[in-house]
Design brief:
Blueprint (H helix, E strand, L loop, with lengths): L15 E3 L2 E3 L6 E3 L27 E3 L3 E2 L6 E2 L4 E2 L3 E2 L6 E5 L3 E5 L4 E3 L1
Antiparallel strand pairs: 1-2, 2-3, 4-7, 4-11, 5-6, 8-9, 9-10
């Protein structure tokens, strides 16, 4: 029982874990498993194909022909994408490409311009 943390809000010892989240039945406070140490709350660093760190608002260039799912269109090598937004998930770049519209890209297929 020593590995079960007390509630950070009310210090209750009757906490339990449910699908990766700790729950306090007394005050109904919920927190993630790594939240008590603060180590898992750091921002995820997104890097391009060359290892450069990407940030919101950067301009990137596509380094490989990318097929557009559900269409016969292809985003060609060398296409510049301006003003990217970083998001969580498998496709970690959200952007708009001229002639294609809104898209999600993987950072491994772009390089910082």
């Amino acid at each position: 029982m020593s590995d079960i943390p007390n509630c950070p809000k009310c210090q209750s010892e009757y906490t339990y874990e449910d699908r990766g989240i700790w729950i306090c039945p007394e005050c109904a406070h919920e927190w993630s498993v790594g939240a008590e140490t603060g180590a898992n709350e750091e921002e995820k660093v997104v890097k391009d194909a060359n290892g450069n760190v990407l940030q919101d608002g950067d301009t990137v260039t596509v380094i490989k022909d990318l097929k557009v799912k559900g269409s016969s269109l292809v985003v060609k090598v060398g296409t510049k994408v301006k003003n990217i937004r970083l998001v969580e998930g498998d496709h970690d770049i959200d952007c708009k490409i001229d002639g294609f519209g809104a898209m999600k890209l993987k950072s491994e297929f772009v390089k910082k311009a």
